[in-house]
Amino acid sequence: MWTNGRTAGAFLKSLYNVQHCCMRTEWRESIRGCKLMSSSSTAPWRLLFFGTDQFAVESLKLLTTSRNSTEGIVENLEVVTLPGDVPVKRFAQQNNLTLHSWPPDNIDGQFDVGVVVSFGCLLHERLINKFPYGILNVHPSLLPRWRGPAPIFHTIMQSDTVTGVTIIQILPHKFDIGPILNQEVHQVPKNCTADELGATLATKGAYLLIDTLKKLPEKIANKWEQGQTGATFAPKIGTSMSWLVWEEQTCDEISCLYRAIGSRIPLRTVWMGRTIKLLDFAGKCHVSDQRKAPIPGSVCYEKESNTLAVCCKDGWVGFKAVLLKKRLSATDFYNGYLHQTSRKNTPNKTAEGQFVSKKAGTKETQRRKNSTL
Fold first, then answer.
1. Contact 311, 357 (CB under 8 A)
2. pLDDT (tens digit, 9 = 90+) per residue, 326-350?
3. Which string of b and e fits 10-27 if b means at least 16 CB within 10 Å?
4. Rounded Cα distance, 19 and 15, in Å
């Protein structure tokens, strides 16, 4: 029993506060539950977009169009991006979208759902929880294949014939492991580059995002978890990937590597102890005049096609130019360098030399082949 009236009054006041707090909590949860059950056709989304590069711009562009239309999918659209002159920031400024710095402040209760496209920063749980519908991610692969920051490059590098785009819900602590809300398959065109595939998947991903937002409560209700079967990791591309190992790589593998990273990182080899960058890949080529059995790394100058042909594991691949001290055509490299070191010359056809694989390349090649989780 209470010892006095003051104590009893204090207890009743405390009990009232607890009950009132619980009622407010239940009310908020009830409202949140009702909102999650409502359809996007009756409640356009207040959306916060996270992105940086041109791939992300395609989704932001379509969201902006939707906001300005009568579709009723996007009510409000604001943007979070990283410092610097990045494509997403430029687009936002050009289209008068409100910009937030990273990490965003004071967004509680302002947005229904977040969208992340090619952002590169891990989103913490406390940020994810600010969005009643969570945060969606547009990822350019058929997850769980090619989780990580460079899925398009590894799709080309490993000569995948099928890829696609996936919409997942972001989970804290790790990238690209969240449940799948939507997914679409895309056939990889033969001989396409990472840049070409990226442009296609950016557009496809933008439309898949809109489709997901149109039916978001339904998509969330029917989401499915990623399995571990077939999961692979797509690490960032870097210079270490560009070293050629002539003894181990086939013509097709070199072609895939060039189409994957060549527009950003030139393929490399060693000639006379110096690093040489190989430019303007010409594909598999045929060398008819061979005075002796070639070894991997052997170089022939093909005058008729103005090509440097290099012997690899299963044939010859061609390059139209190199970068030594400066950019040189195949003819200039032959006349200025290769011809001076050749032991045998023929009047119109070939001069043989040697490109040497960098010793560290073998480990890198094996790492590329074994890039599984």
1. no
2. 999 999 999 998 876 654 444 434 4
3. eeeeeeeeeeeeeeeeee
4. 6
